[in-house]
Amino acid sequence: MDGPSVETMTKGEHMDPELTALAASGATALVQQMVNDGWAQVRERLARAFSRGRPGPGDEAGAGAEAVRAVREELEASREDLVAAREAGDQDVEADVEAEWRSRLRRALHADPRFAEELRGLLDGLGPQAPADAGGDTYNTVIGGAHGIVVQARTVGSPHITPQPPHQHP
Fold first, then answer.
1. Domain range list for the chain
2. What is the pLDDT of residues 72-98, one digit of tens each?
3. Residues 6 or more apart from 117 whose CB is under 8 A from it?
4. Disulfide: which of 75, 108, 111, 141 matches 7 by Cβ 3.0-4.6 Å?
């Protein structure tokens, strides 16, 4: 059986609405991830998932290195288009990239039911993430005669605090 990325739906065939929704949410998440820090990991997982069943040279049984590389290059080309479109403020290209991958995901889901499990796993792994700069107002009050150092921070790496000797009053 050929891999999910080469199968197509025949005219008039209909897909399960759940799988159609999965393809749509997968494409949306994919486009969002293309411009985030976790892109390399998402790209690799999706390239392997799309390549399953497409043998490469010397690899008749599974996803060959050539198939993975080809899908990785397609994903990276889409990312480059998306980044350029965002820099130019071209929302049409962004919509086109998402539509292209929604269609490819839909065909893959139709061709191979196992692909749905892989895509769900990938999406579950992404989870709802708040943007790094998201947040609201935070108010902290220190009461009770605090003595020493009070630190308030969003993230503290490896703090090294050296206590200062108390001030001597003459």
1. 17-126
2. 999 999 999 999 999 999 999 999 999
3. none
4. 111
